[in-house]
Specification:
Chains A, B: This is MarR family transcriptional regulator. The structure is a homodimer. By secondary structure, chain A is mostly helical. Chain A is 60% helix and 6% strand. Chain A has a domain of 102 residues: Orthogonal Bundle (Arc Repressor Mutant, subunit A). In chain A, helix 2 packs across helix 5 and helix 3 crosses helix 4. Chain A binds a DNA duplex through helix 1 and helix 4.
DNA sequence: CGGCGAAAGTGGCATATGCCACTAATAGAA
DNA sequence: TTCTATTAGTGGCATATGCCACTTTCGCCG
């Protein structure tokens, strides 16, 4: 089967990654559907939950996302009362974030469904493989990539 | 170091995948910046290029993306004259897609920059590893996941 | 041939993400 | 202390993606 690989899953690492992300995202989104949360929102709530009233910048950095994008993504969660923000007492530029009681409750609710999806996934690919994949993805995410031309000698 | 792992890169396969996608996406986007194309658009043009005047549904399926999402994503490319559509001559429901000459030219231009980014990435993680990662991601993308509750006995 | 159910897209609506220009506030240099 | 460079966010604008409700065409059955 010389060319059996469906043509075009190009060799682009980025395209392949996005494609997988769309696919897996849909699965987790479906799983979380009953909670009304998207998998991205779930991830964000979780990140906030495990952090200690993190500053927006800290969250953005942890999730490797643009600060402004984080701000946008946070809005629906604030609107729905799951998250609230408050100014840091020592540095008024800093805005800290925390879950509201409803947010904690919603997260608990979502965690139940999430764990089912997670188990479902790991039953398919294997716990070991899943862990390796996550490790590989974290490694990729933390790579210090830079375009050569962008960084001239000095 | 009991909890040394940066707290919160949760064990969620989906969250990890998205995080990596954001990170890598930014790199490829930067690389393609000079062309004015986003890495997603590049991927889409490439997919169209290697297909034979594919129907929208075929593209959506290959990229595992929602048909309507594809339609939306295609708009800026059509507006900018890189892509054009036409009705299938045998089935008027089907809309086929192809690159315009400008689209082909733009793709060529982008491929040059893409290959630099791609090489840069593979120099970091290793060609072998990159290939394995893509294979793993393709496998994940093609998994037939289903929520148990969603599929009752019948 | 008439009509029904499936298939392929479209449009609207909502969230996800990024970049850029701008504002507020702080840390430092003078 | 005052002026400046830096840091943390915000808002606007544009693309990326999905879901759902429709509309148009087909394919097929009676």
């Amino acid at each position: 089967m010389t060319e059996a690989r469906k043509p075009g899953f190009s060799d682009c690492n980025n395209a392949t990654l996005r494609r997988a992300a769309r696919s897996l995202g849909r699965f987790y989104d479906d799983a979380l559907g009953p909670t009304g949360l998207k998998s991205t929102q779930f991830g964000l709530l979780f990140q906030i939950h495990i952090s200690d009233e993190p500053a927006m910048g800290a969250i953005a950095e942890a999730l490797i996302m643009d600060l402004s994008a984080l701000g946008h993504t946070l809005k629906p969660l604030i609107r729905d009362g799951y998250v609230e923000t408050f100014a840091d007492k020592d540095d008024r530029r800093v805005k800290r974030v925390r879950l509201t009681p409803q947010g904690e409750a919603k997260l608990d609710e979502a965690l139940k469904l999430w764990s089912i999806a997670q188990r479902q996934f790991e039953d398919k690919v294997g716990v070991e493989q899943a862990a390796k994949l996550r490790a590989a993805l974290d490694a990729v995410a933390d790579l210090d990539l830079e375009m050569p031309a962008a960084a001239p000698s000095n």
